[in-house]
Amino acid sequence: MRKLPEAELKVMAALWDAGGEAGSEELLCAVDEPWSRTTLLTLLKRLESRGFVTAAREGRVNRYRAAVAREAYLETEGESLLDRLCNHSIREFVRAMYDGERISPEELEDLRRYIDEVAGK
Known about the structure:
The protein has helices spanning 6-17, 24-30, 37-49, 70-86, 90-99, 105-119; strands at residues 21-23, 53-58, 61-66. By secondary structure, it is an alpha+beta fold. It has a 3-stranded antiparallel β-sheet.
């Protein structure tokens, strides 16, 4: 799966947040950018050509549906990040976040509970 440029990722995030389906006007309101409708439609067309969204005509407008789940994209991006920056070491990534004070004690506890939950499966 290809990595998305930042603008296209913002559109996908808005689409995922909308439950995986939305019209262009809904997406234009959801993205926190001063984009024109034309800019958004161009980004949606790119996403459609890359297989990230599908478009279906409903009346006079298109409805867009996510063709790639957020979780699938996050998994691919997470692996890529680990490979590129941390020599595929989750420990190195977490250590960098913790040492850089990017992980709060609450998040660390949440991570600990998650690891215990996954280890117990």
